[in-house]
Amino acid sequence: MRRKFQIATVALVVGLALAGCGSEQAGSGASGRTGAAKSVTGTGNDNGTKGNSVDMQEAAETSDGMLDAVLKKIDPEVQWAHGPTTKGSCDVTRRRTVMTIVSADRRQDFLDQVEKFWRESGYRIKAKNVDETFPAVYAQTDTGFGISVSVRAKGQVFFEADTPCVKESKVAEPKSEPNGPAYKGVYPLPSPNVRSDHWSA
């Protein structure tokens, strides 16, 4: 009888010890999940809201820098011109139009160069259109800026950069100078008309 009582007592003590250990692990797990949730919330705020201290002009300049960077990485160089800037309720879209003729045989190579650069820059590739005639790549930065490259009518290549939601402000024209005719006041821009030994082949 005494032996049974001792066994029962040992089992009870071990059970309580295991229960205490389990509670500690559960507490640690809950704490970890709370931390993760806070991290995600913080990232969301960084992606741009109306409470953001950044205004439309500052955000547009960031987009300009993103567009400048990718166009400088294309090898061989292509000629480009500014497209129209548009404002939404709390965001801005900057555009660049490629004036170099990019042949159907070179389109994928062109988009591959762009995608590789964006990946190396830490952008997340959100979507790709693998259509042979109108391919496109859509990417996003960890701060909520979107950027895309797409092939449209007559094989013309377009770049667009969208800001996250930011404070309302006036937006000036881009400061970057095109590496060809500016086509100021011309819309829509002409079809691609610059031949390249590489891209137009």
Overview of this structure, please?
The protein has 201 residues and is an alpha+beta fold. The chain contains 3 helices and 7 strands; from the N terminus they run H-H-E-E-E-H-E-E-E-E. Strands 1, 2, 3, 4, 5, 6 and 7 form a 7-stranded antiparallel sheet that branches. The longest helix has 45 residues, at 2-46. Mean pLDDT is 81; it is low at 1-51.
Summary keywords:
201 residues; alpha+beta
Present the secondary structure layout:
Blueprint: H1 2-46, H2 56-73, E1 80-82, E2 86-87, E3 92-98, H3 107-120, E4 124-129, E5 136-140, E6 146-151, E7 157-162
> Pairing-aware structural class of the strands and helices?
alpha+beta
Shape: globular
Output the helix-strand order: HHEEEHEEEE
Task: Give the terminus-to-terminus CA distance.
Answer: 96 Å
What is the count of β-strands? Answer: 7
Poorly predicted spans = 1-51
Q: Which percent range fits the helix content?
A: 25-40%
Number of helices: 3
Range of strand content = 15-25%
Whole-angstrom Rg: 27 Å
Q: Mean of residue pLDDT?
A: 81
